[in-house]
Amino acid sequence: MSDNKDSEEDMPEDPLDPVDSDYSDDSDELDYTEEYTEDYGLDCDDKDGGEDEEDGSGMSFLEHLEEFRWTVGRSLLAFFIGLVCVAIFIQDIAEFLKMPIISAYGSVELVDKNLITYRPMGVISVFIQIALLGGFTLSMPFVLYFLASFVAPGLTEKERRVLRPSCFAAFMLFLTGAAFAFFIILPLTLAFSVRLNQYFGFDLLWAASDYYSMVVWFSLATGAFFQFPLLIVILVYLQVLPVSKLRAIRKGVFVALMVFAALMSPGGDFISLPLTTGFMYGLYELAIWVGSRIEAKLREDELAEMDDV
Predict the structure, then answer these.
(1) Do 233 and 287 meet the contact criterion of CB atoms below 8 Å apart?
(2) What is the pTM of this model?
């Protein structure tokens, strides 16, 4: 019996014994876990805490709705202030909007004689159109800023970089389009109409409501349409639309612009139609040129990042 007992004492310890094994040591297990989490960037203890922190930093649906409500409220306030400013100077603005027809007739006396109103409430229509659309034009920069501030937190860094320049370019293109229509297209179109009626010996009378409606709406529509080159450049920058595709559809774009110009031109004459089409197609070619430079810059940045890796 003693021999058996001594032999049992001399036997080596079982490496899988849960009592004496190294794997049962709490300190060793803790060190192993910490080493593993440090090597692989894991943090088991903060698994739930990270989610709570991420949820806490975001905005709920009601908070987004509240922010949108404030954005709409600020935009409406800016529009109301612009409308009041236009209403205060409504007479001066109405005289300024006579410039295209004065240029067509070449005489202020003829304009005062031929610009009439034959409806009792026609002057109210003139007042409302000038006030509303003038207020929209004055408030447009502020409305764009408020909208940009609202959508900026939900954009990526790449999209956020192009947001502020896009708002500024949108406003400048709008002014360029409206000025192009007001100072170039409308005087030429009205002059052609006046000369044609004088050639046939007709007295051309203009209803004030129709004239101001044509001037204001055509100018605003042209300014709005001048945004399409900016949209093209943004799509190229975001790598949604390649420049090669823009070059491939040049002919189709030219035909579409000609049809749009024919529908948009107030007189539909052979003077305003080619001018409007040519200017808008020139903007399209400018967008292709800017887009090609943007694509080249993006390609250089990608190659530089690959070299750094």
Answers:
(1) yes
(2) 0.70
